[in-house]
Amino acid sequence: MRFDIITIFPEIFGSVFSAGIIKKALERDLVEIHVHNLRDYALDKHRQVDDRPYGGGEGMVLKPEPLFTAVENIRADEKQPVYLLSPQGRRFDYRLGEELAGQSQIILICGRYEGVDERVIEYLITEEISVGDFVLTGGESAAIVVVEAVSRFVPGVVGKMDSVRHDSFAEGLLDFPHYTRPRVFKGMRVPGVLFSGDHEKIAHWRRKRSIEKTWLRRQDMLERRELSLEDKKILEEIQRERKGR
User: Fold this and answer.
1) Which listed residue, 28, 97, 139, 203, has the most CB atoms within 10 A of its CB?
2) What is the domain range of residue 129?
């Protein structure tokens, strides 16, 4: 899987991928990450990539020529998707990350200033992607999020794919609580069911805690998800317990 990041501040990415699972994935040639300086594709001697907006207004807008030229030079073929990181885009989530992981090459354009020339959005990019309903100084931070999240789906990047399949959001639910040694810490005990050796009871406990955490923190996720009959029973049980407290 190859990522190509187009930015006017390539130095931001200098060390960000030099640790953790991304570093290991790069060393094992499971992913490629190429950072491109947009100014290298500027058409004038001053390497200008932005200009004032037509119609007036504050700020600067990224010009279309360097972005079109960059993509035309970087793209393996016209089938490869190009994404603009923008607060106006489709919300990035687990499902979109899994979808992007099916591509062999992903080109990410880091927005800056007041945005990019609209012709880039209409005729060049595949889709705009947003990492949340807030505004960043530029798309570089968002690009880092996308690269790390998508890389997790590439076989071999994460040691055990089961851990990816059980990530929060994988099934439309938040993850269940995790515990490790010691069993008792400052009077706080690990739930006894986890030592029972009864795998069925442990699985039920984890499912219940996962549904409970989602109901308490992200009810919108439950509203979007079709619960099985068993999950509905668990949710009703949780609600009764909470009501009785």
Assistant:
1) 139
2) 2-151
Q: Please give the single-letter amino acid code of residue 18.
A: S
pTM: 0.86
Same-domain status, 44 and 131? yes
Catalytic choice (87, 207, 209, 225):
87
Task: Spot the catalytic one: 140, 152, 212, 231.
Answer: 152
Q: Are strands 82-91 and 105-110 parallel, antiparallel or unpaired?
A: parallel
Q: Cis link prior to 182 (omega < 30° from 0)? A: yes
Mean pLDDT of the chain: 93
Instruction: Give the amino acid at 118.
Output: E
Q: What is the pLDDT of residues 2-45, one digit of tens each?
A: 999 999 999 999 899 999 999 999 999 999 999 999 999 998 88
Considering only CA atoms, which of 58, 146, 47, 160 is closest in space to residue 99? 146
Active site residue 40: no
